[in-house]
Each structure stands twice: as structure tokens, then as C-alpha cells.
Write a structure and sequence with these properties.
This protein is α/β, with parallel strands linked by helices and about 270 residues long. It contains eight helices and ten strands. Helix 1 packs antiparallel against helix 2. The longest helix is centred in the last third of the chain and has 17 residues. The C terminus is likely disordered.
Length: about 270
Amino acid sequence: EQDRPDFLQNRAPLIIAIDLSPSMDANDVQPTRLEAAKHKLHDLIQRRAGARNALIAYAGSAHLVLPPTDDPALLDTFIQALGTDLIGKPGKNVGAVIDQATRLLSAEKTPGTLLLITDGADTSALAGLDKQLDDSALQVLILAVGSEDGGIIHTADGQARTDSNGRPALGSFDQAALKQLASTLDAPLGSLTLNNDDLDWIELHAQQHFQSASDEQRELHWKDAGYWLCWPLLLIAFFSVRKGWSLNWMAGFLLAICIGLQPAPAQANALT
């Protein structure tokens, strides 16, 4: 039978990168794009209990918030604390996110998925993004948050932000830019939903990539069994000896000793 080590992880590791640019405070997704994304991530990490997840926040720069952890409560605490005022540099620097994610994944030594949660992309910075994924076991998924109609951007206290002319600031949703980003990275593009279809979509892609790319999944060994059958076979051989045959008793004796000395399977005891 196949011998799979007890410590082999069967859950795909996930690196979550969430856009904290001001447009994520738009209210076309209630209560805001960012709050809706945080609520969705809460549900995602609960259903991924036991799997390792990391968290990156980005805008014009990317920052590691929490390295890979299998503690959903800890991760959720950091997710719920995110806000668009945490990163002062404007922009949507996906290249910096990929740099962070590839470094995390190389330390994990296992295939994984980067989940980008955003409402747009900087199309002027797409060149060379695909090259950053060369020789990497990192898959990218893009989860779009927002609607084509856009929405009014709100401050942390619920007040509408205003532009230089005193009019309410609008958060655009650039679907065309997201499609260009997805095409550049060869990344599946999905959108936030009111039900769990988006969560199913994320887990399906993450697990399929993990199973197809993991060297550990492919390098399985076969467990030898049935050594005890040698004893009745020796007994049958003994009674099959006929008059006039010669039997090398020394060879049989050595075989019996070797069988009796077969090492027991190695076991790791719990640390105390």
C-alpha cells in the first residue's frame, strides 16, 4: 500500500494580499469594499482551519502583516484591524506583493497560492510581472471587489470624502484593468459574491494547484507488508521435503533469523 508520511500537509497554503488603497472604502459594496472583503476573509479562514495562511497588505508598497500561520483566530484579528489609512504611499503595486509572496513560499518549500483582493490594477506597471513568477510554484488568483457603477468613498467615521472641488470622492472599479492584470499573470479572475461561490472558487483553484505542483504529493513510496507469511511458507516447505532430497538447513536457519530480526516500523512519540 502507499506509504504517506503522517506529517505531509494536504491543505494548500494560501497567501492573502488585500488592497488598502483609498478606493477600497467605496460603498458600492456594503458597507464598503474593504469591510465586505474582510467579512469574506473571516469566512474563508474559518473553513480553512488547519491550513497555513499568510497576510500581506498593499497599496503603493507591500507589507507582510502576518507570516504563514495555522491559527485562524490570530489571522482574523490582523485582518479585522486593516484600514486604508495604514499605507500612505498611493498606488496598487502588485509587483511588490509578488516579491513578498515568492519569498514566503520559498521558505515554506511547498507550492502555494497568492490571492489578490482588489478593485483595480495599475496597467502602466504590468510589464515584467509574469517574469517574477518564473521558476516559482506560486499561483495567483484575483478576487475583484466592486461594481462598474463605482461608489462614494467614506472615511473611517462614515463621512463621505470630498475631492478638491468639494464634491463626494468616487471610487472607480476598473474591470478592464483587472482583466489585463489577470491576463498578464495567467491568473483566474473571480468576483466577490453574496453567497459562498467565491469561497468554493478560491479553495478549488488553490487545492488543484497544490495537488498538481507538489513534489511531495508525487513522490509517494510503497509500504512493504506480509513478512509474517514467510513462517507458514517455511512450514509448508519443511513438510514438502521428500525422501532422498537434500536440504540446506543452514540457509533455512539464516532465513528464519533474518525474518525474526525485521525491524519494527519507526514511530515518533509525542514530546512531553
